[in-house]
Amino acid sequence: MGPLSGGLSPFRRAARGASRPAAPSGAFASPAAAGQRGFTLIELLVALMVAAVIVAMVTLSGAPNPERALRFDAERLAQLLSLAREEAQVRGAPIRFESDDTGFRFLVFRDRQWRPITDDGDLRARPWEVETRLVVERADGRRTLDFGRDLVEPPYRVRMLRQGATVTIVANGLGAFEVLE
Fold this sequence. Notes:
The protein contains four helices and nine strands, in the order ααααβββββββββ. With 181 residues, the chain is an alpha+beta fold. The strands form two sheets. Strands 1, 2, 3, 4 and 6 form a five-stranded antiparallel sheet that branches. A four-stranded antiparallel sheet has the order 5-7-8-9, with helices on one face. A hairpin with a 2-residue loop joins strand 7 and strand 8.
């Protein structure tokens, strides 16, 4: 036996009731000896379930919603119609709104003809992201939207139809536009 063991093997010291040598501190200490505890399987499963629920909620809220997109486009179009109405009064020239299934544009009446507006970034021609149909409903039966110098116009509605969803823009004739579902 070596000089460090005191002449007895570890088994014989344990048999005689000798206490075990102290665990070394530092890198070789066991977690149980240091008073640390790991995660149980149940705790790990609960954490994974919480993470899965959060990921599912983020995925669903970020998914494209056709009704929300249509509502957003209707709000934007209502603002642009209001802007076109004001712009016609400022310019002193009529402005017309035209649309088809692929997009829309604003035209100004200059030199005895309708010309696309190219000098205004807000009233530029724009494509629809998804095929969209507009139906103009006016009391006078006209299907075009013309804005002029008149401060009062007949009220009208513009129905936006896309992928089975419908949103209506209501104009009161005094420059106020409201989006209804």
